[in-house]
Amino acid sequence: MTIKGSLQASNVYLVREVLDSLDMKLNTQKSRCMRIGPRYDAKCVESHVIPWVNEFSYLGVFIARSR
């Protein structure tokens, strides 16, 4: 794992700790990463915790990677 990858993973674990303190859960099995905006096609760090996708469905609405 690269330094950036390990930083991203540690950020996910930090968020998980904060959510646990609030009695909330982060479900990494159902979570996805996606960039939207002018830099949507910029190279992203690969995540082994939460996968990167080009589109996903949220409450029946499909959201696609784009500017």
**Could you tell me the number of beta strands?**
2
Number of helices: 1
For the terminal residues, how far apart are their CA atoms? 29 Å
What class do helices, strands and sheet pairing give?
A: alpha+beta
Catalogue the unreliable spans.
Answer: none
> Per the principal axes of the C-alpha atoms, what is the gross shape?
globular
Strand line-up of the largest beta sheet: 1-2
Task: State the assembly state of the protein chains.
Answer: single chain
Q: Please trace the helix and strand order, writing H or E for each element.
A: HEE
Number of structural units classed as domains: 1
Helix content: 25-40%
Q: Which sheet architecture does the biggest sheet show? A: 2 strands, antiparallel
What integer value in Å does the Rg equal?
13 Å
Mean pLDDT: 77
Beta-strand content: 5-15%
Give a summary of the structure in a few sentences.
This protein is α+β, with helices and mostly antiparallel strands and 67 residues long. The protein is built from 1 helix and 2 strands, in the order αββ.
